[in-house]
Amino acid sequence: CQPTCAEPNRTVACSMFICARGCECNKGYVRMTEQDEDNPCIEITQCPGQIINK
């Protein structure tokens, strides 16, 4: 739902989740993965082993 290292340009919102204040990454940051809702926001340039298409 949020942009991740695997899909940094994702813009589709998830209808199954209700976002509370603070649950989204700041501009220039993405979730490391979607596997865990507690995974951190990291700078897009810090994505491990990913090719980033800007």
UniProtKB/TrEMBL annotation:
What superkingdom heads the lineage? Answer: Eukaryota
Show the SUPFAM superfamilies listed in the entry.
Serine protease inhibitors
| Domain annotation TIL: ranges | 1-47
Q: Which Gene3D superfamilies match?
A: Laminin
- State the signal peptide span: none
Q: Which residues form a coiled coil?
A: none
Protein name, UniProt field: TIL domain-containing protein
According to its UniProt entry, this protein's organism is: Adineta steineri
